[in-house]
Amino acid sequence: MYDSYRQCRQQLQGVEAIDYYLAEALCSRFSVENPALLFHSILLLSALLRGGHSCLKLTAEAGNRYWQEETGAGGFVFPDPETWQQEISTWGLGPEQDQPLVYEYQRLYLRRYWRFEKGVADRLGQMKCQQLDPDAGRTAGVLAQLFPQADPEDQQRQAVANALRQRFAVISGGPGTGKTFTVTSLLAAMQRLHGHSLRIRLVAPTGKAAQRLNESIVAAKAELHRQGLLEPRDLDAIPEDAATLHRCLGVIPGQHEFRHNAGNPLMVDMLLVDEASMVDLPMMYRLLQALPDGAMLILLGDPDQLPSVSAGSVLADLIPRPHPGYSEDNCMWLEKLTGIRPSQARGQGADYLSQLTRSRRFSDEGGIGRLAAAVIGGDAEESWRILGDSSDALQLQEGRDLHAWLDPLIETRYVPLLQAADAAQCFALLSAFRILCVTRTGEQGAEQINAYVGERLRRAGLIAGEGRWYPGCPVMVTRNHYELDLFNGDIGVVVRHGRGLRVAFAKGEELRFLSPSRLPSLEVVYAMTVHKTQGSEFDEVALVLPENDQLLNSRELLYTGITRARHGLKVWADEAVWKQGVVRSVNRYSGLAERLLSS
Fold it and tell me: Which of 236, 375, 378, 418 has its CA 20 to 30 Å from the CA of residue 519?
């Protein structure tokens, strides 16, 4: 096809070496009439996998031109759907054939990703057909104890009632919709129905998300206990020791596999996964492989947030829009338990799904809530109008002098950080404010802004010496340190401790102090990318968009950044870049939803 990668680069602009060498290696295993189409199909498939897709969807890419010059000339044009499908049907890529590629559902896969997707669909399809059979009268009694107010509009009560019957349940909702309170009530109900004997594990994709889950569960337990809804046995039976998925499954250094798998399953009766939107397809496959037969699985998350960094969009695939409805049998169950006919119309295949849509944090009239709704709805004009109506909660600075906009924020938010009396005060200040960026690099990226903030503080005389670390400096761990129980994304702060500088990390109410020399993978984090903030919340957020539009800029990213703010949001953005981001949506190719519907 091409004599070398160099020759390929001359004809295909911007093609990556990793895609070229994969296509070259796989093509050598086939003898087909149209090797050019095979080569370029693999080339595109590899590029899509790097972009987070789990497959190449032929009907979406047919007729598209790739790797062309800036003038639009050159590159490679893929054929129309009929021609492409006719060609690919002659390559012998059926699931039953032992080839590194698989063609199914009008999608082209690398076999390992096809195996991941099919494995997830098969296991979840099996679980959603194996509904539990609790005693309706006893279950209704437990539900009435936990929800004494029979409010027909109580989505949390409805979600708990629904999940009590499911081996596999998804509870979805945006910020402030009460997901954690709902699931805490669900765990209490499950424990009461099983004599407080269930072995429950709480997990999340990152260390920060696990810490947030712990904090939320502790707060929910305390509030429900204050209301007299939880008994002492409930409090003891609901865990508050969430772990990362990696730690739960058991990392084997230097390997992709884990200690817990189909041959060595987890010792659990129920597994709760928070921030499920961040879980990629390979990780979900490995998690389901390690889940013992008979165990229950609950996925908790917001499908409108950014999907996982790696391939797949599992949570979004599990949440069809609109809700396709419950089966008649499930409607009768819910009516028997709650006395209320569910609002979802009768349908097929979505008994596992409960959606929370009423936010207690953001009212329909509040600025942040209205902005988030307009953004995720793809309404660029309305979202920009809402931004422009400055209020206590929302403030917009159109893209002009970024440093002049940042300076008062540094003065009011980060100068106190360097003057804080102790680590506890530092963490309180860090939880109150953060600068969020769309990109890591570039003038408006996290790296440049972190450098500017540091230099500004140094010029103000708040940083002594020339060392990399100094008291009050916020830092983020950038790779997992299993031996130290620290993970990529964990936030710490440099403080004076004893005779030198230490990095303090908070775990609940406790503080740990470690030497910076034990943590070579640290970076300053006055500003961070929106991707890194999933699972985090701040009182106020300053969101910085790039000066020019980027592919990373999407409605899911903007929505995620907006909803990290509890009370206040400041935005630095150019109107055109903002609107382009709202219009652009992350749409990952996958066959998981179709497989689940057919299971």
Answer: 418
